[in-house]
Write a structure and sequence with these properties.
This protein has 1 helix and 6 strands. The chain has one helix spanning 21-33; strands at residues 3-9, 12-18, 37-42, 48-50, 71-72, 75-76. The mean pLDDT is 85. The chain is α+β, with helices and mostly antiparallel strands and 77 residues long. The strands form 2 sheets. Strands 2-1-3-4 form a 4-stranded antiparallel beta sheet, with helices on one face. The protein has one domain. Helix content is 17%, strand content 35%.
Length: 77
């Protein structure tokens, strides 16, 4: 799964690729801080998200952990 981050910068258009939406967002923020503008993240499915829509970008689901350890034979696993 690859996410593309496209932006316009002083030297022209730039494109980066990242494996996760979180990494793509991090790169997009870095690009914004260095003066890039008109930033888009494209999902592997082809959906474009403009920087104003980054809050809507689907994130990687967090793995759920049990709320308490299970006990088998008196020992915690």
């Amino acid at each position: 799964m690859r996410f593309s981050i496209k932006a316009k910068c002083k030297d022209g258009e730039i494109l980066h690729r990242r494996k996760t939406p979180e990494a793509a967002l991090k790169k997009a923020r870095e690009m914004s801080q260095t003066g890039c503008y008109d930033i888009y993240i494209t999902t592997p499915e082809g959906r474009d998200y403009h920087s104003s829509e980054f809050a809507d970008l689907p994130r990687t689901p967090v793995a759920r952990r049990p709320s308490h350890p299970s006990r088998i034979g008196g020992r915690i696993r």
